[in-house]
Amino acid sequence: MNFKQNLTVLFWLYRQKAKADGKAPIYARITIDGKYTEISTGKKVNPASWDLDVKQVIGSGLEVKLANQKLAQLQTDVERIFNGLQTQFSEVTPAMVKNVYLGKPAVEQSKVAKPAAKNELTLLEVFDEFIAKFEKRVERENASYETLKHWRSTKKKVAGFIKYHFDRQDILFSSLGDTFADDLYDYLTLHVAKPLAEVTARKEVKWVRQIVKIGVKKKYIPSNPMEGFKCSGGDVEVIPLEFWQVEKIQQKQFSVDRISEVRDAFIFQCFTGFAYQDIYDLSPENVVLVGPRKERWLVKHRGKTEVGEMVPILPIVDQLISKYQGHPYCLANRKLIPVNSNYRYNVYLKDIAQLCEIRDVSGGIRRLDTHDARHFFADMMLNNGVPLEDVSKMLGHKSIRTTMRYCRVRKSRISANVALVRNKLFTKTGKFRQAS
Predict the structure, then answer these.
(1) Is residue 1 part of a domain?
(2) Which residues contact residue 401 at a Cβ distance below 8 angstroms, ignoring those fewer than 6 apart?
(3) Separation in Å, CA 48 to CA 12, 25, 158
(4) Domain end: 111, 146, 173, which one?
(5) Does any domain span residue 117?
(6) Which residues lie closer than 8 Å to 432 by C-beta, 6 or more apart?
(7) Same domain membership, residue 399 and residue 269
(8) How confident is the model at residue 118 (pLDDT cuts 50, 70, 90)?
(9) pLDDT for residue 108
(10) Helices (DSSP H) in 175-256: which residue ranges?
């Protein structure tokens, strides 16, 4: 292990390669003990904007900011790769650093004593393999099509990241560095045309981590370099709808049938707690008679978790089921209620929030979506004395910890519970009751 090697990274403008628009590419020169190699940073600037002294782009605006961020990130990556290679090789060369940065093995395969994992697939190839299996599960109705679309979307994001960060179409698992998760997170929140919110980006990283786990199982890499990344960025508190707001939506008369149907589907969700994909899949077979009184329940496996969810049918839900028994869509597709695509459903819900003047805590029109109904159901049940375990089962959660995210204790509930304690400990005049 040689810690005496010296690394320098120098950025320079390749003016001879300037294009018709006058912009020239920025290159990075990686030098180790007098030996060097060069790589393109993927950024181009006007020569007038390049500062020869500080080796940075000068000026203002988003393009300048992103260019300098890219240079800083490249230097950090090169230094990290160099330090990592020093723990593996007695001598590190600029070519080895460049290879790893570009997603290649540090040393050419013909020069490596130990061959790479047999039949090692690339990251995107494993993605494709996973998605192909998931498609078959969807065909057999063992998985959700909405989840499949999410996996496809995540793969596209990862492909964009590989192109941006490694300047390659794909990379081997053995090329994943310790900061792969952090770099992906930064890309999703800083370097894409429409940056993701922090919580959303962390969830995307969590999905990718599942794919990398497959690489570990196949022994392409000894351990998951993404394991230490904190994917839970803190839950965003969702303020449940008030009962009067749901009642206002339920009683509103709409002149357009499609909006009325979306409203009814939303009310159906509010009083069953079912997620969008689950009400979309509901058929008459999901109505089950339970117990000696033959009580009507909705029973099914939740598409997302494959956990059973079961809810007694409340009167308002029963009325909606009866309302749509003869609906052409329901008859043709054996569905309980007509439901739009998820995208159109949420678009119509925004219209409904506007028409019903459903406002958020700031006074603006609330951005209503399908998940608000699920939160309302959980809040309604928990604040009316239904045990957490029962609510968890109705929501189809795998763990009560998940259900606890839906808990929002209202002042009225606190007041009622403290009143019980007050009456137990104190008399009406405020004196302590004598201990029994």
Answers:
(1) no
(2) none
(3) 13, 13, 34
(4) 111
(5) no
(6) 425, 426
(7) yes
(8) low
(9) 58
(10) 180-186, 198-217, 243-251
> What are the residues whose beta carbons fall under 8 Å from the beta carbon of 306, sequence distance 6 or more?
142
Distance CA 148, CA 154 (A): 10
Sign of the dihedral through C-alpha 301, 306, 311, 316: negative
Sheet of 35-45, strand order: 7-13, 24-32, 35-45
The verdict on 58 and 185 lying in the same domain is: no
Question: What is the per-residue pLDDT across 37-70, written as a single tens digit (0 to 9) for each?
Answer: 888 888 888 888 898 888 899 988 888 888 889 9
Domain co-membership, 102 together with 170: no
User: Does residue 141 have a pLDDT over 80?
Assistant: no
Mean pLDDT, to the nearest integer, of 318-337?
92
- Total structural domains in the chain? 3
Question: Same structural domain for residues 277 and 386?
Answer: yes
User: Comparing C-alpha atoms, which of 399, 387, 232 is closest to residue 305?
Assistant: 399
In sequence order, the β-bridge partners of residue 13 are 26
Residue 251 and residue 393 share a domain: yes
Q: Which of 78, 111, 144 is a domain's end point?
A: 111
Q: Closest by alpha carbon to 408, among 371, 377, 431, 370?
A: 377
DSSP one-letter code for 187: I
Say if residue 191 is in the same domain as residue 247: no
**405 vs 238: CA distance, rounded Å:** 9
Parent domain of 192: 123-217
In a domain, 235, yes or no: no
Q: Which residues pair with 359 in a beta bridge?
A: 365
Both 287 and 402 in one domain: the answer is yes
The pTM for the full model equals 0.52
Contact 123, 171 (CB under 8 A): yes
Burial (CB count within 10 angstroms: exposed 0-12, middle 13-18, buried 19+), residue 2: exposed
Do 204 and 293 lie in one domain? The reply is no
Does some domain include residue 236? no
H or E segment and range at residue 71: helix 62-86
What is the C-alpha separation between 149 and 61, in angstroms, rounded? 35
Q: Give the chain's mean pLDDT.
A: 84
Q: What is the pLDDT of residues 206-250, one digit of tens each?
A: 999 999 999 889 888 888 888 877 776 555 567 888 999 999 999
